[in-house]
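User: Okay, second chain of the day. Same drill as before: sequence in, structure tokens out.
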Amino acid sequence: MTDVTFSGSYVAPPRAKDWSGIYGLIFVLAVIPYLAPEALPWAKVFPDAWKVPLSVWIRDGLNWLVKDLSFGLFTFKEMTRAMAAVMAWPLDLAKAIFFDGVTLGDVHLPRLSWAGVILAMTVWGWALGGRGLAAVGFVSLSYIALFGQWNGAMLTLSMIVIAVPLGIGLGLLLGIAAWRSPRLRQALVPLLDLMQTVPTFAYLVPIMFLIGVGPVSGIFATVLYAMPPMTRVTMIALDGVAPELAEAGLMAGASSRQILWKIMVPSAGKGLLVGVNQVIMLSLNMVIIAAMVGAGGLGFDVLNALRIANGLGPGLETGLAVVALAIVLDRYSQAAAAPRRGLDPARRRLSLRLGLGLLVGFTLLSVFVPVLEELPKGARLSTGAIWSDLVRWINLNMFEQLDAIRTFLVLNLLKPFKEFLIGFPWPAMLLLVGAIGWRLGGRRLALLVVALLAFIPLTGMWERGMTTVYLCGISAAFAVVLGVLLGILGAHSDRWHRFLENMNDTLQTLPSFVYLLPVVMLFRVGDVSALFAVVAYSIVPAIRYTDHGLRRVPPNLIEAAAMDGCTRRQILFKVEIPYALPEIMLGVNQVIMMALSMLVVTSLIGTNDLGKAVQMAITKAEPGDGLVAGLAIAFLGITADRLIAAWATARKRKLGIP
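Assistant: Same drill. Structure tokens below.
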């Protein structure tokens, strides 16, 4: 029972804002262009005279940089080419070690032996994480070798070992600078938000224009893409260090540099390792995407599988090789940061030396036994024929059913929704989004989301933008519904939870190109294939956040509901889901972000959205169009993020959740 104290006078609660006028205006702006097109001719088609030629300005600016800008002793183009040459030297060294060896006249010095790498990683895995990690390393690397993916994996790895240290180092330094300077931090956080929402392909367009085509461009793009998480994690980790530690160092006479590198950074080590792990995984993801600009490696093999008739088998094998490589990098980096306890340090050092000896020994032996440098084709395995036969059987026996599903989705869902959004008057859409922003977060949020959304018609991208919204909206809806259902199963069953965790880990490490292969084989190119690919790619956050949110519901709430006689279904829908809804909505937010990023990839199979504009910009080397389309996708993502975050914050406040 809550005690209520009455004061001498009654104060009425603040009156709620009357939104009927705004909603009425939205309705009028939405209806008049249909009933009387001549009344508001500019409402459905954004006038050309109002458009801002931003893509032309960007293209002209980059052309000026490349062709005209000079610093006296050298030009801008000479500077970028010199940077590329400097980057090419360590890349060539890494490629010689991992990929192709070194040839000096008639003498060939082999690359690292595949057998030596497998055995060394197995021994190191045992030293760092025990039998489990050793088994993971042995099985994963053996799969890569036996299924003929070793060359692509080593070329990919040679780019990663260059990009990851650069991403970690630059992200750490930038994060430290922002931590020390509140002004820099205030300016940097929105930029980091933008960089993390811009689709991966958009990074390739200006880099390719400035640096050229090839693996070096892929490394520059990878560093830019993977650096923001490290910067953000560095700021957060340093914020979490107790101020008393710095004060103690200051009292001991340490300089500011000594306090930073001897006290603050080591104390923030656990948090920084999270950023290191993110840089590794994002670098692997971006190196795969960089195959679009000639980076080669596993990404090129997956991309090539899309171009051949029976590419499902080779594409899946290469995709699983990416998964295997990602698992090795992820698990070993975590184990190196926190080695297992219980092993004598002397034995650990001995094991590490043994692994190094095996690596060097088998590599030297491969000079005389070439089979140890590269596994012969006759010893390799392949499931390509099995997958080809399966696709052929499905097409022969299930074509009518699959075509019926495709036709039903196109005629009854995709086409109507697409036509509705493309034809919806843009002023009404801006006003509607602004009204939602105002109700959720006030005037500042409303102005922000309206400004972000207005960027799309102002740059002439309205039709492509609404096509993106339609594909993203339907795909995200399917992913959320299915993901929430699976998350509910995982939250109430430990067996389902373990199965879903393993499934999610696999889905998140598969390269985005791989998702296109089965859907194209089944549904051909077009929006239906894009829909299924985006759902499969973006479903993971919905599952994880739902599972996690439901598991965090306080047990006393569930017990109280059960004691009141609620059924299991009532407890789920009246207690658990309402309490976990803010966290579930954060999962919805992540689903939307991943769907937007995947739509750029699905442009390869026939969609005509903003992702297609980015992909065409890469093909035609049009940096202006690519950057504008990439910014439009990022602004859609930021708009959804801000609206959902505002709703989740308000909901948590209402429920009293910290």
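The radius of gyration is 28 Å.

User: Thanks, on to the next one.
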